[in-house]
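ok, trying the design again with the full structure, not the truncated one.
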């Protein structure tokens, strides 16, 4: 209904529906809107925001709402004090002027709602008129009446109104009349209905325009406000230059998209989601325009589609800010909805914007970041750090919430260039001089080690990225990463026997027996002397046993990710370790833990083939002679030949695992609820020739036998109900014996219901073991967690296929449960909705193109997941082959959905296992990767030879039979391997310096570190990070970058301020012993990095060492210096030409230019036998 108001108590917001109202939706422009708003404020006492909603929402903030609230309170106070009553407007017996006064006062009170300032002026005029009449009228009675009227009515009313800030503000405005006064006072933020962010469209009062430019379709204006050091960044996006019809069209389209999500076949692949939404939006807008009889040009249609995509598939207003290349940082502070967004501008530094995000914006951004990163953001995890990629910009985002931020969500974004920084771009922006660019390029080409240091925001990381582009693409770039935590469990096969072990404990066991190799970077490696096999996935997707050739560990402070899947499996890995998700061109592809998010699918075993060689055997053989004598076999037990490890005994052990315990060293208790289970206990009692008795509860049986207790403990059946495990011995038994143990366990604690088969146990570890034992039969089960108790309590088998496997291979002891199981199978559908293969949209489109039978189209189009059995039929009936899809339904992999991801930072050991040739292993029943990875997709696109350190790592080098330290030297030396460490913060410093020392004179080794001087770097590396002082000598070059400020403190800029070499003669303190020698220093007077005399006359020991090893430069400083100057000239030329053609300074062209430089140099050398620079 028009002008209907809604009040939200939580946000204290009054929202008035003005759609269709003939008076508009502006308090400052419409006296009716003002009056109706004040009326509502009289009704609702605690309003803090007023929104007048039409095709756009006009929001009046707390300050402006308070102005109107004071008027509403004044009206109420006047009424409450009865100031306009008869007794206050005249004295008794005097009624000559009463009618006129009442009429005037009513009009003033009425006008207070429509035009408060005009009402105040009328009241003031009436006071003046009364005072004038008092002077002219000689009647004593009239003077008394006028005085009474003034004191009891007019002056109190004027006093009440003068306390209202709106009246005071209006009184101070000169030269404005009517509604123009209110336009000076009220300035609502405006928001179209299809978005949440509010805009202040009016530029700041008295603001001076100092710059104006366009960012795509948006207009950016920079204002200087008198008396303020901070500039105003005023953004006018295209969405505020639309007609009312276009607003209506966008609002309708957004509501449609919210209710109708695109079907899966419309999504070609996830990474093109935005493009898909754009196409959908464009088509939808065209259809709606036709319905509304609107004519839109192609350009206008694309503009509207872009806007709609930005506020549906995108990040709204953040995208507009991130698309401005001049913005470096964005701050969205709490409490959101009150404070504008702040930005750090390249030219004007700290700026306040005209954008005020809403709480809805903040929640939407937080949700998007959670989904994109797979990391939590809540009161238990109040910080989320991730990378954000939008059209035209890339940024690092840090989001915080309660408990860290008392006022709720807040965000900080650091914008990165969409493409990497390059040396010519740095020269163009005066970050360093052309000579500095040429010198660093020369040092990189000649394999010097360097640290790039600086404070936060100094540009050190950008400089390191630019240095990467100066490495020749033919060189190999490598990096070290981590693996799983030590408390993760896996199954191993040692000398023919299966064991379930914790990774950390098994490493300790191997190290104790065989010793381990300790490397200087802190890593420890063990090479097993005997055969150790682990489950691994081969190229065809089959679970096989593969030999583990090495185990490694080291301490890390990285974030640990605990991944929990739908089936209840859990694994803890470091943030950059890889698991596996489904591939498009391969069965599996690696995915880092930090890249996973809820709803993703990862590879887990669908079956574990425990190779069994131990069948029915005499139990007595488990005990040695001493143990046999101590059990007093003469107590009438001379029946050892009947003590067989057969199905009956395994069923008994299953019953004990379910509800049994040891009473003491010579007796045990087993609880059985029915005759079938009781018969198994009685059978075992007869075998051991012992008596049994029923306890007082009528269901628990006591068996007294020291031999039975000793045998069970020898088999490792131990622990209380909450700490119980299935012994490793069970996993090497034959299938029939393993089935018997599960049969006993499920018969006592399991149930059959509509959900399927369930079992409730007190031990999480026992449930894990049951899940693993079921995998031996190809049965996938789910473990359910009780969140309030933070432990698992129940395991269920719900899919028909797996229930059928259970019925045929395991079953129950009780006829009643068997009957329920058969009945359940008859009612269940044959299809398995749990065992699905989550094909990507691209793979599904490819599959559709291969299908000949159209009856299968619906199966493919319904959802991302296709049931394994359905896909198997599609592949067989359509004779699909020579395609990865054709292999997927026949693998041993189950695709398990990620349900929860927990992240925590802790210092702990992490472990890796080398499993050639498949480079993966099953840990916690999840397939994890053991290769090491550097995410440099951009470098690959530019033609770089990026290869994992894993290929020449300390682990895989075992096959070369070289010592580990020599293997590492070989790995870093062969193929010009270059090690780049993003930031040296912790123990990776030791690894970096190991690489610097080993890779010296052959490989580029570089990293960034916090520090503002060469000695500051030394202090941090040696004293904070624990690198020995002599190891620090492996550093050749230290580059210092910093953010400098102008004398007034209002401006700052980034510069490289120093390039220094580290000499090798010093013993203890490089500062006191002159171990740091500057090659280039920043000149504040010239704002340029200038060469020192040491560099100019060739006294640099680092450069001399390079010359000593190059025939053409040996003893020829001029030749070497000419080569450095030539490189500087190349950088300077690229920067100069980039003024007209900016693409010449971008990464793609710079890499091509560098390659041509080396090719031409080779041609000159071949022709002249000397490198003439």
């Amino acid at each position: 209904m028009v002008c209907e108001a809604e009040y939200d108590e939580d946000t204290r917001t009054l929202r008035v529906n003005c759609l269709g109202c003939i008076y508009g939706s502006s308090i400052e422009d419409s006296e009716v809107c003002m009056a109706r708003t004040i009326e509502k404020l009289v009704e609702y006492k605690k309003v803090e925001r007023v929104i007048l909603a039409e095709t756009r929402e006009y929001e009046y903030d707390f300050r402006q709402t308070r102005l109107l609230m004071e008027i509403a309170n004044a009206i109420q106070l006047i009424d409450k004090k009865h100031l306009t009553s008869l007794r206050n407007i005249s004295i008794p017996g005097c009624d000559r002027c009463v009618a006129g006064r009442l009429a005037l006062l009513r009009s003033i009170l009425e006008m207070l709602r429509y035009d408060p300032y005009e009402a105040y002026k009328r009241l003031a005029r009436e006071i003046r008129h009364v005072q004038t009449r008092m002077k002219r009228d000689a009647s004593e009675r009239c003077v008394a009446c006028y005085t009474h009227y003034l004191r009891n009515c007019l002056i109190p009313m004027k006093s009440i109104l003068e306390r209202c800030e709106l009246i005071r503000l209006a009184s101070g405005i000169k030269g404005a009349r009517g509604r123009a006064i209110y336009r000076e006072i009220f300035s609502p933020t405006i928001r179209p209905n299809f978005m949440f962010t509010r805009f202040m469209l009016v530029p700041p009062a008295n603001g001076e325009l100092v710059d104006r430019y366009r960012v795509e379709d948006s207009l950016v204006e920079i204002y200087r406000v008198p008396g303020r050091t901070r500039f105003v960044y005023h953004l006018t996006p295209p969405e505020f230059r639309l007609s009312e019809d276009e607003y209506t069209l966008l609002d309708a389209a957004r509501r449609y998209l919210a209710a109708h999500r695109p079907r899966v076949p419309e999504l070609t692949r996830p990474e093109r989601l935005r493009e898909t939404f754009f196409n959908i939006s464009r088509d939808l807008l065209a259809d709606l325009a036709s319905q509304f009889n609107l004519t839109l040009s192609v350009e206008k249609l694309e503009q509207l589609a872009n806007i709609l995509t930005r506020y549906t598939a995108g990040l709204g207003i953040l995208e507009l800010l991130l698309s401005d290349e001049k913005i470096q940082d964005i701050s969205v502070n709490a409490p959101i909805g009150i404070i504008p967004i702040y930005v750090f501008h390249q030219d004007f530094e700290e700026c306040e914007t005209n954008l005020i995000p809403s709480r809805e914006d903040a929640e939407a951004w937080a949700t998007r970041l959670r989904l994109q990163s797979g990391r939590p953001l809540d009161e238990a995890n109040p910080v989320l750090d991730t990378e954000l990629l939008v059209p035209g910009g890339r940024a690092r985002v840090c989001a915080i919430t309660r408990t860290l931020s008392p006022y709720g969500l807040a965000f900080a974004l650091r914008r990165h260039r969409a493409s990497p920084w390059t040396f010519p771009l740095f020269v163009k922006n005066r970050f360093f001089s052309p000579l500095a660019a040429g010198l660093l390029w020369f040092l990189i080409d000649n394999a010097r080690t360097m640290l790039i240091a600086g404070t936060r925001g100094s540009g050190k990381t950008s400089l390191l990225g630019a240095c990467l582009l100066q490495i020749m693409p033919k060189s190999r770039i490598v990096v070290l990463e981590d693996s799983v935590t030590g408390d993760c469990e896996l199954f191993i096969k040692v000398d023919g026997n299966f064991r379930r072990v914790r990774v950390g404990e098994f490493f300790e066991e191997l190290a104790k027996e065989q010793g381990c190799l300790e490397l200087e970077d802190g890593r420890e490696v063990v090479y097993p002397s005997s055969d150790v096999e682990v489950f691994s996935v081969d190229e065809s997707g089959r679970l096989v046993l593969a030999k583990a050739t090495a185990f490694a560990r080291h301490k890390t402070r990285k974030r640990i990710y605990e991944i929990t899947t739908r089936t209840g499996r859990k694994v803890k890995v470091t943030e950059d370790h890889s698991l596996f998700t489904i591939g498009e061109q391969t069965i599996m592809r690696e995915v880092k833990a930090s890249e996973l998010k809820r709803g993703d699918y990862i590879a887990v075993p669908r079956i574990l083939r425990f190779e069994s060689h131990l069948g029915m055997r005499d139990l007595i053989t488990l005990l040695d002679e001493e143990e046999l004598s101590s059990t007093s076999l003469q107590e009438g037990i001379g029946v050892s030949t009947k003590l067989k490890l057969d199905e009956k005994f395994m069923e008994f052990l299953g019953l004990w695992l379910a509800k049994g315990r040891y009473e003491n060293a010579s007796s045990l208790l087993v609880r059985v609820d029915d005759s079938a289970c009781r018969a198994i206990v009685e059978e075992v009692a007869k075998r051991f020739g012992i008596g049994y008795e029923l306890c007082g509860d009528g269901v628990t049986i006591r068996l007294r036998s020291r031999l039975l207790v000793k045998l069970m403990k020898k088999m490792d059946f131990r622990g209380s109900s909450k700490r119980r495990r299935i012994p490793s011995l069970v996993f090497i038994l034959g299938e029939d014996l393993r089935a018997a143990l599960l049969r006993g366990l499920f018969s006592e604690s399991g149930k059959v219901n509509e959900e399927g088969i369930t079992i409730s146990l007190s031990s999480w570890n026992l449930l894990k073991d049951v899940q693993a034992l079921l995998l031996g039969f190809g049965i996938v089960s789910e473990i359910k967690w009780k969140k309030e108790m933070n432990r698992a309590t129940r395991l269920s088998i719900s899919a028909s296929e797996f229930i059928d496997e259970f019925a045929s291979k395991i079953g129950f002891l009780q006829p009643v449960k068997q009957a329920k199981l058969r009945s359940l199978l008859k009612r269940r559908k044959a299809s398995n909705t749990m065992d699905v293969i989550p094909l990507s949209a691209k793979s599904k489109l490819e599959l559709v193109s291969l299908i000949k039978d159209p009856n299968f189209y619906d199966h493919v189009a319904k959802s991302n997941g296709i049931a394994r059995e359905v896909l198997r039929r599609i592949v067989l009936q359509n004779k699909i082959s020579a395609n990865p899809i054709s292999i997927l339904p026949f693998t041993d992999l189950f695709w398990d959905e990620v349900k929860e991801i927990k992240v925590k930072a802790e210092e702990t050991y992490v472990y890796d296992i080398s499993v050639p040739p498949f480079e993966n292993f099953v840990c916690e029943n999840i397939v994890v990767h053991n290769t090491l990875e550097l995410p440099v997709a951009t470098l690959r696109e530019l033609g770089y030879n990026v290869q994992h350190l894993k290929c020449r790592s300390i682990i895989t080098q075992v096959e070369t039979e070289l010592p580990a330290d020599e293997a590492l030297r070989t790995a870093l030396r062969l193929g010009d391997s270059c090690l780049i460490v993003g930031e040296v913060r912790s123990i990776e410093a030791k690894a970096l310096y190991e690489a610097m020392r080993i890779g010296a004179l052959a490989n580029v080794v570089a990293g960034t570190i916090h520090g503002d001087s060469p000695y500051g770097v030394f202090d941090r590396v040696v004293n904070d990070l624990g690198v020995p002082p002599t190891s620090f000598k492996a550093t050749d070059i230290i580059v210092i970058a910093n953010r400098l400020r102008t004398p007034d403190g209002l401006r700052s800029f980034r510069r490289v301020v120093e390039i220094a070499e580290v000499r090798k003669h010093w013993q203890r303190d490089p500062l006191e012993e002159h171990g740091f020698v500057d090659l280039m220093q920043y000149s504040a007077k010239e704002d340029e990095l200038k060469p020192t005399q040491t560099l100019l006359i060739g006294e640099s020991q680092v450069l001399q060492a390079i010359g000593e090893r190059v025939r053409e430069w040996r003893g020829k400083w001029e030749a070497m210096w000419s080569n450095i100057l030539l490189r500087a000239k190349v950088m300077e030329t690229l920067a100069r030409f980039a003024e007209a053609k900016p693409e010449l300074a971008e990464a793609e062209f710079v890499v091509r230019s560098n390659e041509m430089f080396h090719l031409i140099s080779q041609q000159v050398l071949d022709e002249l036998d000397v490198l003439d620079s």
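Keeping the full-length input from now on. The chain has a mean pLDDT of 79.
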